[in-house]
Automatic annotation (TrEMBL):
Listed GO MF terms: DNA binding; DNA-binding transcription factor activity
GO cellular component, one term: protein-DNA complex
Sequence similarity: Belongs to the LysR transcriptional regulatory family.
Name of the molecule in the record: LysR family transcriptional regulator
Classification lineage: Bacteria, Pseudomonadati, Bacteroidota, Flavobacteriia, Flavobacteriales
Transcription regulation in keyword set: yes
Domain HTH lysR-type stretches: 5-62
The species this protein was found in: Aestuariibaculum marinum
Keyword Hydrolase recorded: no
Length: 297
């Protein structure tokens, strides 16, 4: 019976399932509302399944509709990727890989990885997008990105992770700050300073790890600003709005107005991990994962 269902039916069904509103879905699809209703009714008749409950202008998915939405959303994403890959092959490319990453991954990890990968795979297109940890997880689940580089202790079911870098933290201070590498002894020397930290939304587990540094130093910090970008932290520190703690890989010695003190003598470390969706069928993904596992083994 499935041969009677055409791709347009699936497209129309998903539009209504996502909006739960026939008029809005019709506008999105650039077709008339009565026409859309006929297409959905036709799909229900062919499948002999009720997909929507309609009561008092409210539209709800039936249990069968919920199941179909989840499965079609996942599998049509794979179909789009397959068709896109075929187009790339026609254009002489071997494929495309979409990266998400937190800023620290772009300092060394990703550039080094791409340099090594392109030596054996020169015809791959790369899309690189800086994203916070939670946005990457969303992008991996929806398969809008193929691989992410995050600082998270826990990831959702269906995703896999492998650590690529475990590193200490470092202090960020204005250049003229009286504390430097010669007289720094412990973080408690800075207990009265305002701190500029990565926002908890950047990664709650990362934020907890940084808070643990302060706890072991015997004080609670005065947090004056939160942000999700290292560049914003550096600009605030430069202008004497406070000091900061960042992963060691985020050191940027080209900024002459700030300085860094490595915190190698404390136990806390932060881990950067590569994360991917086990349902992702992009053939290039497995190739780069092979390289990643080789590099960290």
């Amino acid at each position: 019976m499935s041969y009677q269902i055409e791709f347009r039916h699936l497209k129309y069904f998903l539009a209504v399932a996502e909006t739960l509103h026939f008029r809005k879905a019709a506008e999105k699809l650039f077709i008339s509302q009565p026409g859309l209703s006929r297409q959905i009714k036709e799909m229900e008749d062919v499948l002999e399944v009720k997909l929507f409950d309609r009561h008092n202008r409210q539209v709800k998915l039936t249990p069968a509709g919920i199941y179909l939405k989840e499965e079609l959303s996942k599998n049509l994403k794979s179909l789009d990727a397959i068709l896109h890959h075929a187009k790339l092959l026609e254009e002489g490319k071997d494929g495309q890989l979409n990266f998400g990453y937190v800023g620290s991954a772009m300092q060394h990890i990703i550039p080094d990885l791409l340099l090594k990968f392109t030596k054996s795979h020169p015809n791959i297109l790369f899309s690189l997008k800086e994203m916070d940890n939670n946005k990457q997880i969303e992008g991996l689940i929806s398969q809008d990105i193929d691989i992410g580089f995050v600082r998270l202790e826990r990831i959702p079911k269906g995703l896999m992770a492998t650590p690529v870098l475990k590193e200490p933290f470092c202090l960020v201070l204005p250049k003229e700050h009286p504390i430097d590498m010669n007289n720094f002894e412990s973080l408690s020397q800075l207990k009265d300073e305002p701190f500029i930290l990565f926002d908890p939304e950047y990664s709650s587990s990362y934020y907890e790890n940084v808070m643990d540094i302060f706890h072991h130093s015997g004080f609670s910090p005065l947090v004056s600003h939160n942000t999700i970008h290292a560049d914003s932290i550096y600009k605030l520190v430069e202008n004497n709005f406070g000091i900061s703690i960042v992963p060691k890989s985020l050191q940027n010695h080209s900024i002459s107005t700030i300085k860094f003190i490595e915190l190698d003598n404390i136990p806390q470390r932060t881990t950067l991990s590569a994360v991917w969706n086990t349902d992702n069928r992009n053939p290039i993904l497995n190739k780069i994962l092979t390289l990643i596992h080789k590099e960290i083994s």
